Hints:
The complex is a heterodimer. Chain A is mainly alpha-helical. Chain A has a single domain (about 50-360), classed as ABC transporter involved in vitamin B12 uptake, BtuC (Orthogonal Bundle), CATH 1.10.3470. Chain A has helices at about 30-35, 50-75, 80-105, 115-130, 135-160, 165-185, 195-200, 210-225, 230-240, 240-245, 250-275, 290-300, 310-330, 335-360, and strands at about 190, 205, 205-210, 280. In chain A, about 45% of the residues are buried. Chain B is an alpha/beta fold. Chain B folds into 2 domains: about 5-90 and about 170-265, P-loop containing nucleotide triphosphate hydrolases (Rossmann fold); about 105-170, no CATH class. Chain B has helices at about 50-60, 80-85, 105-110, 125-135, 155-165, 185-200, 210-215, 240-250, 260-265; strands spanning about 10-25, 25-35, 40-45, 65-70, 75, 90-95, 115, 120, 170-175, 200-205, 220-225, 225-235. In chain B, strands 6-9-10-3-11-12 form a 6-stranded mixed beta sheet, with helices on both faces. At the A-B interface, helix 1, helix 9 and helix 10 of A face strand 1, helix 1, helix 2, strand 8 and helix 5 of B.
Amino acid sequence: MRSTRSPEASPENGGAPGAGLRITDLGVLNPQRWFKRSPELPGAERAGRTSIVDRFLDLGIYVALVGLFIFFAAASPYFLTQRNLLNVGAAVAVTGILAAGMTIALIAGQLDLTVGSNVAIVSVVVALGIGHGFPTPLAVLFGLLVGVVIGAINTLLIVKVRINSIIATLAFSIVIRGVALILTDGQVKPLLDPSLQNFVSAQIFSVPVSVLILIAIYILGWIMLTFTKSGWHIYSTGGNPSASLRSGIKINRVYFGVFIATAVLAAVGGVITAGNAGSGGPAYANGAEFDVLTAVLLGGIGLAGGSGRIQRTLAGVLVIGILNNGLTLMSVNTYYQQLARGAVFVLAVVLAATSERRKAR
Amino acid sequence: MSPEMANQDGEVLLEARGIGKLFGHVRALKDVSFDVRAGEVLAILGDNGAGKSTLIKILAGAYDPTEGAIFVRGVEKVFSGPREASDSGIATVYQDLALVETRDVAANLFLGREYRRGLFVDRRRIYREAQQILSGLTLRLPSVRVPIYLLSGGQRQAVAIGRVLVGGADVIIMDEQTAALGVQESERVLQLVRDLRDSGKAVILISHNLQQVWQTADRVLVMHLGRVAGIRTRTQSSIDEIVKLIVYGADDSGAEDDDLGTDVKDEQ
Lengths: 361, 268
């Protein structure tokens, strides 16, 4: 007698039973996805060419940067003074360092919303460390270690527990800020030793150390992303995790490295914040994630992962820094400044979505 | 080179012996045995649910076989993952092509296999070798620096096939490669397949479209309800015979395949 089994009953028609599947416990490796075809472009007419619009979107951030610079230079006599430019530099240093980390995370297709509370708790830990009589370098080391721990917990939540990185880091950021509040009893803790303040505000060739750290991080980040195997793997993991895994890239290790890098960079931002403010506070860098995201998205780092250039993030950071500074110089009401920042954030998201849709066509 | 001249005496590169696969209580494959030789195109055909994809995932190292063994050049191999299979010379061109859209052609060709010089990726060598690999393929690409999202379907196929060559594979499994392509692009991909065969590779073509692969295949293996219904040399068979195998299976297989499929599930 012929078997009565209908072909639809086969495990390979989509109803694959879980038992026996080895690599499918990773969401990205769901075999169902293997059958999805990459979007196809309409034939050869678009093959290998970028349109003028794509090119404009590519250069837009640099155009905006130069445009704003010229505009404020003309609009305010104070804008081009050395003192003001140093102010801009100091103001963008922390945001810029956080944005470098966020860029790496976004290229890997992840998001890290703990960076703001990371800054706060690290500034608190540094202040408390010095308060307990530890020498400043050791207190700074404690702060950076806190960053490593935050990065490791983020990785655990996202890779092992497999929670979406937006939700995981948003939730965890609330926990971190809670811990910072408990540690300080809600108070701002002054640095009892001025050496960190002196270090951060020291100038080499009249450039503040915080700005030099910013520049060094972007140069290192650019080299890492463009020229090292780790950098290439971050791009490919963000662009197509399933394909990367099937090509033998250990994507969980990539995610681990990315979240550690992001968190340690945020911790560096926390140390500089403590130095700038002369204190550690549990409310510092509240909402910094959104300034950082605005800068990164303005720089054209795709939300979908796998694309973007870190030097463009720096341009995005400078656009926002110059905008904030220029609006203040022109004595625009702070409420309207808030509106302007929100509008730029929306614009950045729209730009990111537009360029992604153009790629997906 | 005409298919009639295909190499029937090539070295056996890959052999499957008695492969079986159970998913819990559901049997997907039973006693699948075949071999594939250098310079040969073996088409694996079968209706939906015949066991083609399961078989391919076992060969590619994505699934463990429940029974049986795989031999590569006569040596038994147990793959713990796709990477191990490809390191043994068996590479799969996935149906979704497994390309990173945002990266350029060269980065995709060398994905996971990037050359290094000291601390850094050896970009010069990667771009140079990528150029060489692609100039060996009949399908032209504008440049190795173009990101994948700007390429056409056929060009993407060429990149996916090129990547298999980078890995040095000599058994190449292609999973439903032409299913999504138009007539012209399918023909170009099949030309790539013939080029691979003529360069001494063994190619396993998975398809449910007999018409498309018939002219390219040297031998045809038909799967039916998780078993091998028959293996035929194309020149000694006909489309009619193959269709009968696909639809009815082997004539004598009906009575004894009771343990296949739903009967176990009925107990639940």
